[in-house]
Amino acid sequence: MGNLEWEIASAGRPRAGNIVPTGPPDIGRWQTTASTLSDSPIPVPDSPMRSILVIDDNPAVGTALESLFALREIRTVTATSPAEGLEILQRQPIGVVVQDMNFSADTTSGIEGMELFRAIRARHPDLPIVLLTAWTHLETAVDLVRAGAADYLAKPWDDHKLLATVENLLELAEATGEVSRLRAEHRRRRQALEQAYDLRGLVFAAPETLRVLELACQVARADVPVLITGPNGAGKERIAEIVQANSAVKDGPFVTVNCGALPSELIEAELFGADAGAYTGAPSKAREGRFEIADGGTLFLDEIGNLPLAGQAKLLRVLESGQFERLGSSRTRRAKVRVISATNADLADMIRAGRFRQDLYYRLNVIELGLPPLAERREDVLPLAEHFLAGAAALDGAARNALLAHAWPGNVRELKNVLQRAVLLCRDQVISVADLGLEAPRAAAPQTPPAAEPDRAAIEAALAEAGGVVSQAASALGLSRQALYRRMEKMDIGHRDAGMA
Asked: By CB neighbour count within 10 A (0-12 exposed, 13-18 middle, 19+ buried), where does 193 fall?
């Protein structure tokens, strides 16, 4: 801000009117009388996080800042008293507050600004606040920054520095707000799902798991086959149980067949049944197959990729017509069964290799539920751990961090086994890292440095082009914000050199 602009903005500092002390300074000293504020509603911006509230008793300061921030499409709302500023914060969302430190004529102590800062912080603890004043002791500024103020700038301010400070704070506020919004949306969706459906007591917290469950519950009542894909130990059978529990045949039997645990010559007999003496070693009397047992309910075929081609042909026929024959019998039987299958194999690769029928794949894959490995849903790790421990022991901080850092190649099954072992080994019912017995994480391979490392001139040029906004400069250079900060520190490119906050 130039000297002429500063003289205009500083001229005739009016007293704030209708301010009534009403309570302790740290809770909020000001309330407004009915005549202080207009009854007209304050328009809410299209993007609330791109709004700035300027609280300064000199209207010219608000006008000057409004013109400055308009250059970056930042909407500015102004208030000429602490009471008006607090009222605005109650009536509409604001991304950043820029506040003066003195509001009464001939006052330079900064006490009024400190009280306003504390009042805002008490009511809006996460709202970034920039302090802006011409008269305040350095000790006061340091105390307020320690108390959570985002920055402290002196009047007359530097336009580039103020713009950069506000831009960076708005970006942070937008990111924080988006994270909070996503968490609130996740909680809302989870509560709605738990109220509407039977989740069989499944323990989860990850958004990835929630998406799978939402789709599973959505298709549960449809009379179509469901294919659940995912690695071993990830919990595919639990998802199948949830589909069955919310289906139209939830009161019928739920029968499980692990196609990978039976010899290939016995799988057909297991699924479709066998007459007496139908094969070598067959029992002396006829036996029902799983399709007959599951009639009117659900049949869960785990590891469907292990089903031999002959069994695949018969399974396809059952899915299409509901008809089958027992081994050694010519009598056609019928069964109405909801089929849910699961596999950790790549069925598309098996089709190309001639080991899985393409027509069966399409019949099974009417709805596919892809369950990610535990390593891709980290938020599930600690809730599952607490569930498996069931109060038998507690995890110390280091053990919790180790669980989150582990890759979990065995998924949920591995986690359960690790915790069962730790409960037996721990002392005083407190599990440490040593009790977990996890493999130490491997050191990451050294990364090859980029071919064109930006030099000092390139960094300064990018910062100048971005008006000092670090995130924009980092994006232009192909770096993360943290990487750019490291290079600036290494090259001794400070705020003054770059004209930034």
From this structure: middle
Dihedral pair phi/psi, residue 82, rounded to 5°: -55, -40
Q: Exposed e or buried b for every residue in 408-427, given b needs 16+ CB within 10 A?
A: bebbbebbbebbeebbeebe
Q: Which residues of 297-315 are buried (b: 16+ CB within 10 A; e: fewer)?
A: bbbbbbbbbbbeeebbebb
Token code pair at residue 45? 């911006």
Count CA atoms within 13 Å of residue 5 on its CB side: 14
478/453 Cα distance (integer angstroms): 10
Q: Calculate Rg over the CA atoms of the chain.
A: 33
Assign 199 to helix, strand or coil.
Answer: coil
Task: Pull the structure tokens for residue 106.
Answer: 């001939």
Tens digits of per-residue pLDDT, 216-262? 999 999 989 999 999 999 999 999 999 999 999 999 999 999 988 87
Cα 369 to chain center, whole Å?
Answer: 20
CA torsion 9-13-17-19 (nearest 10°) is 90
DSSP, residue by residue, 98-126:
EE-S--STT--S-HHHHHHHHHHHHH-TT
pLDDT of residue 393: 94
Does 342 score more than 90 pLDDT?
A: yes
Q: Report how far residue 461's alpha carbon sits from residue 103's, in angstroms, rounded to the nearest whole number.
A: 40
CB 307 within 8 A of CB 266: no
258-311 tens-digit pLDDT: 988 877 778 888 888 888 766 666 666 788 889 999 999 999 999 999 888 888
Which tokens belong to 453? 């490392």
Beta bridge partners of 343: 229
DSSP secondary structure, 131-190, as one string: EEESS--HHHHHHHHHTT-SEEEESSPPHHHHHHHHHHHHHHHHHHHHHHHHHHHHHHHH
Residue 254 contacts residue 298 (beta carbons within 8 Å):
yes
End-to-end Cα distance, the chain: 15
* Contact (CB, 8 A) for 242 and 216: yes
457/438 Cα distance (integer angstroms):
47
Read off the tokens for 116: 């306003």
**Residue 145: which of 157, 131, 166, 162 has the closest Cα?**
131
What length is written for the chain? 501
